[in-house]
Amino acid sequence: MLSTVFEQFVEESPLSVMARILMERIFMPERLDKIFEAHATVQYQQDLLFSSQVDLMSLVVCGIHKSVHAAYRAKAIEKIVSTTALYNKLSGIELNVSQALLRETASDLMYLIQAMGGEQADLLPGYKLKFVDGTCLAATDHRLDAIRAYAASSLPGKAIAILDQPSKLVTDVLLVEDGHAQERASFNQILSLVKPKEVWCGDRNFCTAKFLYTIILKGAFFVIRQHGSLGFKELSELKYSGETETGKVFEQKIEISYEGEILQLRRILVKLNVPTRDKEWEIAIFTNLPSSDASAVEVAEIYRNSWIQRNTFSNCN
């Protein structure tokens, strides 16, 4: 499994041999096939095993081969199944199978990182940070009959990824077949993953009263950029709190309402030295973190770090 990928590293460093052993154990074909059997509801395994499909796709994802067809020829899978059968299998992989593959292998990889002492220091001691973001798969010019009358390219799908800050692993992913759907359509699934003492960081697409309220109900916290459509009541004036590399930081107390409940929050405002790519000079952030654990400047830095992590999410394409 993944032998061609690791072969490039083995020749350069003996440490790669150890990495190969550990990684191949996590991605054992038998283990991957069991994941498929446990989560597939429509597809079944016959001549072409799920583990073989993962092995094949790894060669493309890791840049060993430029296309599925090139990897297919190199692995001589044609002796087992036809090209048509291969593509039919790949296109028919169910979303819950792909999600389970990431989730279960990420769990093992996190254990490995922890055992080797490879985790980064917590950005906020005492709390576990999670970064959530959605990314659309690249638009395609291939046209289905139903959309050939439209000029815009179609979006094949969307992935909402959850990244664990200390390990820098994407620990879960929600896959959506409708690339034009909003993240909000998947909020219930995202919220089901929230655990106490976690801090969920996200962009303004995740800033709804329901999302924030549910996180609080679960005993967790958030650092989420304010969305203009979510109204709030000011309880105090903005007060200068300090500076970061990106600008001056201010804070005020606010409240929002949801289904008769009143949520008292902190609103952190960063007046930027340089505008964003959307020409915005201010970024406002909502948080329920206690000021005794996270100052306004620290909250601003946590959100800035979430932007840095978006580079990881972009790799989901």
UniProtKB/TrEMBL annotation:
SUPFAM superfamilies assigned: Ribonuclease H-like
Record domain Transposase IS4-like: where: 128-307
Molecular function GO labels: DNA binding; transposase activity
GO biological process terms held by the UniProt record: DNA transposition
Cross-referenced PANTHER family: TRANSPOSASE INSL FOR INSERTION SEQUENCE ELEMENT IS186A-RELATED (PTHR33258:SF1)
Name the UniProt record assigns to this protein: Transposase IS4-like domain-containing protein
